[in-house]
Amino acid sequence: MGLSVQESNFVGRNDVTWHFPGKNENDSMPIGNGDIALNVWTEQNGDIVLLLAKSDAWSENGQLLKLGRVRVRLAPNPFISPASFTQILKLETGEVQIQSGKNIVHVWVDANHPDVHLEVQTEQPVQLEAGLELWRTKSYHLDQRAVSQAGFFEWGSNPDGLDFDADTVLPAQNNRVTWCHFNSRSIYPLVFEQENLESLLPKYPDPLLHHCFGITMKGPGLVAGDNLTLKSSGDSKSFRLDLYALTQKAGTPEDWRAALDKLIRSTDSINVRTAWKAHQQWWTKFWARSWIHVSGSPEADKVSQSYAIQRYMTACAARGAQPIKFNGSLFTVGHDLPEGVSSTGNNHDPDYRAWGNSFWNQNTRLMYWPLIATGDSDLLAPWFDMYVRALPLVKDRTRLYFHHDGGAFIETIYFWGLPNVNDFGWNNKGHELQSEWMRYHVQGGLEVLTQMLDRYDYTEDAGFARESLLPMADAVITFYDQHWKRDSDGKILMEPAQAIETYQQTAVNPTPDIAGLKSILPRLLVLPEDLTSEAQRNLWSKVLKDLPPLPMGTTANGKLPPKGKGDADGKRVILPAQKYDEPKNHENPELYTVFPYALYGVGKPDLALARDTFKARLFPFGKCWGQDGIQAALLGLTDEAKEVVLQEFTSYGNQRFPWFWSKNSDWIPDMDNGGAGMMTLQLMLMQCDGKRIQLVPAWPDDWTADFKLHAPYQTTVEGHVEHGKVTRLTVIPADRAKDVITVHPQTN
To answer: 596 preceded by cis ω (within 30°)?
Structure first.
């Protein structure tokens, strides 16, 4: 089923069009199929450049590398003249189209196969040359200081520095150019050794050693000029360049090439026009799943386009083996550096990303929350799968360190589940992290579990519950039950602990952890009994009974009280912990009761308490990983939510494609900023609580919207909002319409 005419127009109006060629990598457009992604740009001489990335291109050092760069040159070049030049990012079909007169180039990454196609049609015959450009041409060593400057956060504490290995270019065969990065060694054992987990190494095979990733490129009528270059065998008006990517364990680069050759034969068995049609169908179905289109003012138009493009960029990078990196996704760019010069934040190669290569729960989660309401379960899967795959190792780590069952995830982890060595501490002989920012920061596992519960509620997928949700619940809830002692009242006493990164070391009974458990446990207890066991339900009931109350207090001078000491006549507010000291970061732990744990909000008890807490927060912050917009929407604070969603969706970067979001506190593009913007806009339109579906709880009267969003119990809600009134409402299944209510938002 294709898009309606109206919906097709809505998607197409968000296309991005440029009318003159670019200059360098800062003038690129993004495309991708969820695993393979490209930055595509043109240069003043008419060259077309492809910078290729893949979600699982992990080096020997656990660094997510680019696959390489390919420069395509036509002679004579029809794209030099800016007078008739047009470059379009076409969201509806996931492609870049470059045109000058009747000369057209299409670049697309097959949505269903691991290959990239660049198709050329010219008015007059031309020659084509495609050349590989690598920057990892030699192995080299960086000392400790240079490693830190190069954005490699995980290894900044290594006094020995780090070695970096070169790529491998294989001899051209059968008019194909092939290159790869082959991990002949790995830092994986060193991570286990530094974290005192050597005894577990035999049980958990090294995912980096002999990991090999790369590309073969070829095309009809193209011949190998050398090991780096393909050239046309003659003049023609039509060319196609095909690039095939593979990541696989291999004994040698030659073994990897043999596996890629087999993959190419399988892929080539499908006619490229048939593949293109299936590719278009994938994108059609993707856009038909969900949409929000906003109008009514120039600001609304910006929000609408930014929402669509953030969702598009997420789809381009979210179906691979690992989750999206919050700090750049697969769309980081850079340029070649002189020999002997290493990357810094201001001058770097394409592999650079500030804050390194670990997965930071606090940041990454924000890209995945909005995918529940868009119905994009396929894009959610890598995020959940990373945690589920890591559960056995995380539980074994808990047994070795703490001598009890369960498992907890530290905030910053490698994709196999262990905390990064920089946070753990170099030559740390204990089991507690040396980083005070991360030492007790384990509540992220509760948030992932909350997302899993939402995913189950929306889809009612029993297989997902059995294979992902319940194993995660068993590990996380068991950890919270067994890790903490009880106080004199028999309540869990979380000490030593921390309230996310804000209140470190001295926090007692942190609010995010208590709120998470108070939110999660009742939801687990009402899962269908055929999914859960009596032993599980007994544990969940026991932990729920043992939870301490949420910390409460009063404001001091209208703000959250320092160290919990409020004014006698202050307003009652939620505190960040039962006990806490001075803040060390700019997050508001007390508001985790609103998001992500939804204990307070529109239509729920004590809304005034939650609003007073929001007003008293110490750290207003909307962009990047800030949650102000999300929490304001959940509290029905329309003006605040509108203000923040505008901040989020106009936090443009300094590249030509402005939706490569400004680095804010992270890196370019700051994908958690865009994810937070999506979540804010969704919650302004619709909020779900059990079976209740609340429409326009924080929607401004001067904005118009057409929308389709998903709701629990396999429900979709589609409608039109204008002047605060909902019309053209379609709820599927129809019997869920009785659960839909319209909420009149509060303006401030």
So the answer is: yes
